[in-house]
Write a structure and sequence with these properties.
The protein is of the alpha/beta class and 359 residues long. It contains twelve helices and twelve strands. Strand 5, helix 7 and strand 6 (188-192) form a beta-alpha-beta unit. Helix 2 runs antiparallel to helix 9 (258-268) and helix 3 packs parallel to helix 9.
Length: 359
């Protein structure tokens, strides 16, 4: 019998994003359903972004800028680096796929914390590489264990800071020690900073500032969280000229649509909206932490725009919240059974979450 599909695809589990909100509302018979399962921006996108998208809608019959040139120029000015060190993708997910396309051969090793963001392993599995998992130390990334798992066959080490779903960060001194310990011929180190805008720990390092010292470092960032552009899918990677060149060789032309590009540009031009989002998340995250602690509910020390809460019966707690009009993520789906992952929202919504958990 003719074999059509690659064996490596058998190891891939399709990502389950969940049912659309409209479908869930209809099925549950609710007046509304607040989604706190996807770490979306509680304020939405900037009004300036919405207006820019409205203006650009008349041009959607035209192909976009194939290399996101204007956006890369703007990012380069903001980050004080060459635009040639930046590649823009259809969300960070596409950038992770480009890494796999450009770097992984069958039999290569890809080292990553476990659990961590699912697409890291998906790209490796599709390429036929071997995923090498390093268990978290509680909620923290164990850099010593990760280092011990690096071998001559290791092509990439994935780091996630703040970590999704554990919410914790890798601080500057341990990160530098880890990078130095890899020596003069390290694998590619992918530092995913998708949630960096919500960190208030002074020991948190800026990955872009480390690129000159560590040329095999690649930093991932996104407009989905702080800018509220999750529905338009715009992420970007910053790295050495060699790394970005290789990613561009496997990137599809026109990979970021017109609306996404103009929305990201407008978001860069409205830093006040990002500042309001950050202020709200930091204030409400602190409020949630204090309220959970006072109720004796355990949680990870979050530096992201979500909290990972330990509960006795996660399935029952998630169902109770769902019937109360709040959709959260069951931690079992992201490697943390017995937990719920809950996006930080407004005070009114956060109080509803606490009341339902308390009940």
């Amino acid at each position: 019998m003719r074999k059509i599909w690659r064996a490596a695809v058998d190891a891939v589990t399709p990502y389950e994003a969940g049912k659309p909100l409209e479908m869930l509302v209809a099925e549950l018979g609710l007046a509304e359903l607040v989604r706190l399962s996807s770490n979306e921006n509680p304020l939405g996108a900037s009004p300036r972004v919405i207006e820019a998208v409205r203006r650009e809608a008349a041009h959607i019959h035209l192909y976009p800028d194939g290399g996101s040139g204007a956006l890369r120029d703007a990012l380069g000015r903001q980050l004080r680096i060459s635009p040639e060190q930046i590649v823009v993708g259809n969300g960070a997910d596409e950038l992770i796929t480009l890494i796999a396309l450009a770097a992984f051969d069958p039999g290569d090793e890809v080292v990553m914390p476990h659990p961590s963001f699912e697409p890291y392993a998906t790209g490796a599995n599709i390429a036929g590489a071997r995923v090498v998992q390093s268990p978290l130390a509680g909620y923290e990334t164990d850099l010593d264990d990760l280092r011990r798992r690096v071998t001559p066959r290791t092509k990439v080490v994935f780091l996630c800071s703040p970590h999704n779903p554990a919410t914790t960060i890798i601080r500057r001194r341990p990160l530098l020690a880890f990078l130095d310990a890899l020596g003069d011929d390290p694998p590619l180190i992918v530092l995913d900073e998708a949630y960096r805008d919500f960190v208030d720990d002074p020991e948190y390092p800026d990955g872009v500032s480390l690129l000159a010292r560590y040329p095999r470092l690649l930093v991932l960032r996104t407009f989905s969280k702080i800018a509220g552009l999750a529905g338009l899918r715009v992420g970007y990677a910053i790295g050495s000229l060699e790394t970005i060149d290789r990613l561009n060789r496997v990137r599809a032309p026109y990979n970021v649509n017109r609306l996404g590009q103009v929305a990201a540009l407008a978001a860069l031009e409205d830093p006040e909206h990002g500042a309001r989002t950050r202020a709200l998340v930091l204030q409400e995250r602190a409020y949630l932490a204090a309220a959970l602690e006072s109720r004796g509910i355990a949680f990870a020390p979050s530096q992201a725009n979500f909290v990972l809460v330990r509960v006795k019966d996660a399935a029952a707690a998630r169902d109770r919240l769902l019937r109360g009009g709040i959709l959260v993520r069951d931690g079992a789906a992201v490697g943390f059974p017995g937990h719920l992952r809950i996006t930080v929202s407004t005070r009114e919504i956060n109080e509803r979450v606490l009341k339902l958990l308390e009940d």
